[in-house]
Amino acid sequence: MKYAVVEYERRWRLPGVPDGARDLRRITDRYLDGTRLRLRLVESADGEVLQRKLGHKRRTAAASPAAVMHTSLYLDEAEWAALSALPGRDLVKTRWLLDVGEWLAAVDEFADGLVLLEIDFGSDDAMQGFRPPAWLVEEVTLDEAFTGARLAGAG
User: Looking at 61-154, which runs of residues are DSSP E strands?
Assistant: First the structure.
């Protein structure tokens, strides 16, 4: 855990992008075949590249996707080009930010119409103590089908 940040996340499926969502970004995640590695390209609404990074996620408890150790390396254009040539599966989404009470949530919309809201709580106590508002009705945190790798068809 020396270089990893632990993320404590919960996810909900939504019927659409909620009112109040802001700061649109386009994200392309490439899950590298046979690994726990993910390349991420973040672009602004007008196509400007904001970030290129390589991520590695490992669960803190094998059974739960709610808490993961996440390590990121920021890449330049040449590093990105070399790594993105490796075999993998892509997942493209549009991301907005949304305030949910005191928390900042990410709202992701996928090409097939799926919309997910995710909150990273910063600690297990905060995650366990969160009481979702009534409009967050379908929690999918523990459903493997809604992990990024699964949505990309990579795991």
Answer: 67-74, 88-100, 103-110, 115-120, 138-139
